[in-house]
Design brief:
Helices cover about 30% and strands about 20% of the residues. Helix 1 packs across helix 3. A hairpin with a 2-residue loop joins strand 3 and strand 4. By secondary structure, it is of the alpha+beta class.
Length: about 140
């Protein structure tokens, strides 16, 4: 099992979030990477819903950490529905095809789902979420 760090960035925002994912199988192409990332996050999401505490509390250190981000919360879950892994994978692949996000490996954009990629623990993986302007032009 290998552990990778993925940078998540939104266009127009300065903050970069870093997520850790565990990969159980070898990644050959971008499609494999997307499947692995989505599967890892769906498992995390579903396990939080299955192992929910009835009464949550915050330690002083958690309050301090959360205050640095500007939001303090208990992490209560209102929606206990589990995510469908296969539907989530299909949605992520379709979002990539629709240019909703870009993927960079070591600062090089990957433009094809079937493009071969080679990952090492030092590989810099970045997902850049594209945002759209809203409003109408008259």
């Amino acid at each position: 099992m290998q552990e990778f760090f993925i940078n998540l960035k939104r266009l127009g925002k300065k903050k970069i979030y870093t997520e850790t994912i565990q990969l159980d199988f070898k990644i050959n192409d971008l499609k494999d990477l997307l499947v692995a990332c989505v599967s890892s996050k769906v498992k995390d999401y579903n396990s939080k819903r299955e192992n929910n505490q009835l009464l949550s509390f915050l330690t002083p250190s958690q309050i301090q950490e959360q205050s640095e981000t500007g939001k303090i919360g208990f992490g209560d879950i209102a929606n206990y529905n589990l995510a469908d892994e296969q539907a989530s994978i299909e949605t992520a692949i379709q979002a990539y095809k629709d240019d909703m996000f870009l993927v960079f490996i070591n600062d090089e954009e990957i433009t094809d789902l079937n493009e071969n990629i080679s990952l090492t623990p030092d590989t810099n993986i970045t997902f850049l979420r594209m945002t759209f302007l809203t409003g109408t032009y008259w």
